[in-house]
């Protein structure tokens, strides 16, 4: 009887001990890192609000959203919690407190964000990241000139400001940012975004569980005219067609098929507005390919490289981020940029399936592109899967065209191949020395 009573007393004692241990670990974590993270306070919030309204007398720049309404919102606001009620990450985070939390860095690229939009972007990213803290942050001002904000953020500890006098593009700007931060987990952030409550913990926890996962939040919508914040009724992932143009695809599996509404799910393509990944994995993949002329092709090329070279791309429903839904340009120049960029992706990653791209975009054959030999060598070095594997295992919904050619390849006579002269109408064909890399011969 004495032994049973002793055991009964030990159970609550052990429970109390475990709770104290968890509390102690949490306390140590916060105390040790209190002076080692990016932190804002109420004073900074008020100062940013004053800076936003001080710019109202300035000439309003032409951007794809309503700046007046954005300024009226202010530097910080309380967003509606659009997550599922089952999303409670604090308890999950406590499980990992006994282990070392990886250092987290933010790389924020700024190209067309007005002062009020940028202020909400940065403040929401830091404030709503709790209970996690950010080790350091870099702002890359890519051809943006706002000396007031630039000087202000330069004086905040652990915030670095990089200023590009001339626009270098998102890919190059992000690589500049990665070189300037020291975190083990890098969170890439576009400035036209606003982070919702506890958005960071679910992403970091997933990377801890799966180090080669590239994780994205669910994107909510911020109206570009009213700046109201909306959540989408369904979950979506991003896909693409044979023209290599991206589109949203409804993906209701976590809500309908799976009994757990917060299940992480895969996406064949990512939108790079906000995503997180391990720094070492990003460097191992070769970082960004900087020759693309538009963001969508940056995202497509990196997505294919991640999937085909050993990684995963996943959407975490318990992380929510709003994106300002501005429209991109549809000019003739931007269409040619798209064709050239898409052709580079097709030639490097689509293997024999590139014929489907040329079937729907025949004019791309005549578009000149820069040398892609280094991209092909990197693909070989990383020992990546072929595109057939991707279609079979990751994106079987991308079906080959029903009306495919009876044959494909080149027409040759000995060492000479039929070669089309680019830019000629009507087309002129000549026999020239066969070259495997020459697209006008295939």
TrEMBL record:
Organism: Biomphalaria glabrata
GO CC annotation terms, alphabetical: Golgi apparatus
Name the UniProt record assigns to this protein: Polypeptide N-acetylgalactosaminyltransferase 14-like isoform X4
GO biological process terms held by the UniProt record: protein O-linked glycosylation
Positions of the Glycosyltransferase 2-like domain: 114-252
InterPro entries the record matches: Glyco_trans_2-like, Nucleotide-diphossugar_trans
Gene Ontology MF terms in the entry: polypeptide N-acetylgalactosaminyltransferase activity
Keywords: Disulfide bond
């Amino acid at each position: 009887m004495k032994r049973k009573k002793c055991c009964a007393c030990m159970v609550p004692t052990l429970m109390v001990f475990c709770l104290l241990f968890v509390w102690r670990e949490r306390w140590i974590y916060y105390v040790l890192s209190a002076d080692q993270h990016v932190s804002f306070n109420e004073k900074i919030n008020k100062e940013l609000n004053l800076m936003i309204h001080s710019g109202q007398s300035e000439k309003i720049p032409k951007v794809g959203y309503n700046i007046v309404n954005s300024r009226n919102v202010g530097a910080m606001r309380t967003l509606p919690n659009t997550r599922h009620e089952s999303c409670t990450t604090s308890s999950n985070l406590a499980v990992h407190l006994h282990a070392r939390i990886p250092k987290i860095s933010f790389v924020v690229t700024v190209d067309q964000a007005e002062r009020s939009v940028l202020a909400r972007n940065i403040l929401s990213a830091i404030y709503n990241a709790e209970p996690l803290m950010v080790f350091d942050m870099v702002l890359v001002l890519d051809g943006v000139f706002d000396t007031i904000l630039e000087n202000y953020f330069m004086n905040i500890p652990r915030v670095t400001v990089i200023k590009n006098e001339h626009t270098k593009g998102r890919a190059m700007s992000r690589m500049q940012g990665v070189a300037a931060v020291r975190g083990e987990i890098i969170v890439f952030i576009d400035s036209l975004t606003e982070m919702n409550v506890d958005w960071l913990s679910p992403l970091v926890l997933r990377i801890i569980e799966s180090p080669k996962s590239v994780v994205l939040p669910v994107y909510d919508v911020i109206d570009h005219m009213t700046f109201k914040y909306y959540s989408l009724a369904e979950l979506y992932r991003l896909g693409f067609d044979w023209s290599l143009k991206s589109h949203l695809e409804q993906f209701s599996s976590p809500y309908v098929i799976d009994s757990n509404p917060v299940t992480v799910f895969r996406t064949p393509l990512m939108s790079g507005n906000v995503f997180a990944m391990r720094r070492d994995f990003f460097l191992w993949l070769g970082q960004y390919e900087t020759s693309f002329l538009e963001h969508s092709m940056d995202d497509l090329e990196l997505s294919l490289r991640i999937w085909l070279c050993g990684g995963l791309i996943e959407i975490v429903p318990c992380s929510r981020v709003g994106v300002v839904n501005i429209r991109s340009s549809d000019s003739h120049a931007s269409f040619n940029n798209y064709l050239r960029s898409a052709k580079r992706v097709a030639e490097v990653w689509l293997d024999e399936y590139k014929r489907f791209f040329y079937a729907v975009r025949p004019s791309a054959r005549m578009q000149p592109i820069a040398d892609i030999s280094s991209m092909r060598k990197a693909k070989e070095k990383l020992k990546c899967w072929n595109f057939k594997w991707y279609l079979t295992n990751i994106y079987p919904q991308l079906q080959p065209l029903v009306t495919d050619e009876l044959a494909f390849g080149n027409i040759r006579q000995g060492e000479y191949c039929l070669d089309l002269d680019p830019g000629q109408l009507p087309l002129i064909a000549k026999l020239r020395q066969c070259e495997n890399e020459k697209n006008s011969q295939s």
